[in-house]
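Worked Example 4.2. Consider the chain below.
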Amino acid sequence: MKIIPLSEGTFTIDKSKLFVPFDESEHSLKERPAGSLLVEIQPFVVITSKDILLLDTGLGFEKNGILQLHQNLMDAGINPSDITKVLMTHLHKDHAGAVGIERDGLGARLSFPNAAYYVQRDELAFAFEKGFPSFITEELECLKNSEQVVLLNGNGMIDDYIKYAVTGAHSPYHQVFWISEDDESIFFGGDEAPQLQQMKHRFVAKYDFDGKKAMELRQQWWEKGEKEKWTFLFYHDVKHPVWEFK
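Applying the procedure from the previous section yields the following structure tokens:
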């Protein structure tokens, strides 16, 4: 399988929950509001013998009038129309911002026209229940009543090689994925396994729905991944996007 990280860069976020671009060569963290956190954003493409998979959809920002995620895909030699499956860990705005794309005031349409989108049914309902600022429901409307959207209920398999499980540690209906083909196993844990350093150290995050559970899951996955030689993909770690146990 081929893995392509699609880094959208580094941002700061404070109590406003707005993502503001941050470049170490131009900006100083001290000049940002007190309590600002550095956050890296990075969806992934995984190319298998069956599919071109997209794992989460980034912030949905545009550059020069083009969706940044679309531009990143094209820079990697992939037409957005070639994506066959979109796997969503959850629908927070930094993971689902490019689920849809605006149509000149007519509302959003799905941004990958030939892809099936895999979303937990309860996660979609929860997003509309909670709304802003964690979820931008206007961007998620296109997930409702679309033939392209597969609403999942709990744990299961997709096409006999993609396993998904609801873990509910970062958010109540967060899910994680294992993609297995030809003795390779790729693990994508979204915001429950976001960075390499969090896998190696006991760390409870205040922003998690159940921080203790998230920490325990990371330990379990790291130990099992080492034994079974998983490849980990880290959505919030552009310095270490891929970690492969050999």
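The chain has one domain: 2-244. The two ends are 15 Å apart (CA to CA). Compare this with Example 4.1 before moving on.
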